[in-house]
Amino acid sequence: MTLLRDIEFAVYQGSNHLAQRLSYATDRRLAKPNQVSVLITDICAARCTMCEMWKLQENNELTVDEWKHSLDQLREWLGPFFLVISGGEPFQKRGFFDILAHCRQIGIKTKVSSNGMYLTEKACDRILEVGPDFLSLSIDHLTREVHDKVRGVPLYDRCVAAIGMLQDKGSKIVLGVATVIMEETYADLVPTALWALEELKVDRFLVQPLYPTFATDEAMAPDWFEHNPHWPRNAELLESQLEELRRLKRAGHAIWNPDEHLVALSYYFRDPRSHPRPDECMVRYNAFNIDPRGDVMFCWTVDDRAGNLRTQHPRDIWESAHAQQIRDKMKGCQAPCLLNCYRGRSLREQVGLFKLFAGRQGF
Fold first, then answer.
1. What are phi and psi of 225, to 5 degrees?
2. Residue 108: how many CB atoms within 10 A of its CB?
3. Does residue 103 carry a pLDDT above 80?
4. Which residue of 26, 134, 164, 278 pairs with 260 in a disulfide if CB–CB is 3.0 to 4.6 A?
């Protein structure tokens, strides 16, 4: 059954990838989304200095049963798909392991991004039972002092210990480390990458750009970066680090960013008001983003609600006239956004991800 599900997953991804390319070529909805992302909760007990989501309170979030119902609908509509879950802190969501277990039961592959705060030994044992299939831990620097200062609470040791526990217990899940590029971290991106890949021995390393502070209106100011204390001040030094990451990627190191994304990041940190995206934003025909209350949107930044899962089937939201009006509004967007969600992964990258799952999980 598992093998059949994963063959189905690979076939669906390949055929839908071609349909999406036709969608962009003809500017018509011919495909289903292949990037389903969920903010499972707003709440987070960390105190990250570059994010203010921790100030939010739980507000009318979908219950576990509501999530299960919506996931059943998505699975019936999309077939097997890859679900990216973040927050807030996902493991702080009440009943989160029940949601992961349901995903595994109905054949949805999951990636979870976590700050590691709740990854105790008991939690790691549960992860081995129900997933996720891909766990990405936010570790911003190879040293405890820098990472914990940025995160506002001591999380470094918990993250490192969780990776070790999962590896020691024979975990079949894929493990990754994600680092935010900011003033406190950018000079050591390469040492951090090598530490994560060679000492922690994770499967993937990813860098993410500093973005206007979440849960604030900072993005409304065009000069936001000039006042943000975390903005890297030496663009030349940062560019040299990004170039070295590109070299490591070419040499076979598991740097998860596409090469063109690393190039674009250099331009972004020289002037975020520029338009450094290497290709057209793909989200309007490939992304299906869901917030904690079930609101659906194609872009977290544009933030136009296409519908709500509490009252609508996800297929009806995707195919609605209102959704198409939002896509038309988004067409030609020139926002200097370099969040990793803005582009669809190539078919080669999708096949590579499938092979990574197959090799690690024994499919």
1. -70, -25
2. 24
3. yes
4. 278
For 40, how many CA atoms within 13 A lie in the half-sphere containing its CB? 26
- Give the DSSP H or E segment for 297: strand 295-297
- As given in the structure block, the two tokens for residue 101 are 């277990």
Residues facing residue 46 across a β-bridge: none
Give me the mean pLDDT over the 125-150 stretch: 96
Q: Give strand pairing partners of 36.
A: 83, 288
Q: For residues 82 and 111, is the Cβ–Cβ distance under 8 A?
A: yes
What does the DSSP assignment read for 275-300?
Answer: ---SS---HHHHEEEE-TTSEEES-T
* Rounded-to-integer distance, Cα 250 and Cα 181, Å: 21
Phi-psi region of 315 (alpha: psi -120 to 50; beta: other; left: phi over 0): alpha
Q: What is the pLDDT of residue 363?
A: 46
Residue 137: name the closest of 157, 108, 109, 107 by CA. 157
**Bridge partner residues of 112 (DSSP):** 85, 135
Cβ proximity of 357 and 6 under 8 Å:
yes
Amino acid (one-letter) located at 288:
F
Q: What is the dihedral of CA 312, 102, 257, 54, to 10 degrees?
A: 70
Q: Which of 137, 119, 135 is nearest to 172 (CA)?
A: 135
CA 94 to chain centre: 21
Closest C-alpha to 2, from 96, 169, 131, 99 = 131
Q: Which of 132, 131, 135 is nearest to 113 (CA)?
A: 135
Residues 6+ apart with CB under 8 A from 107: 5, 8, 9, 75, 80
pTM beyond 0.90: the answer is yes
In the chain, which residue ranges form alpha helices assigned H by DSSP? Answer: 2-26, 64-78, 96-106, 121-130, 144-151, 156-168, 189-194, 224-227, 235-250, 259-270, 283-286, 314-319, 321-330, 347-361
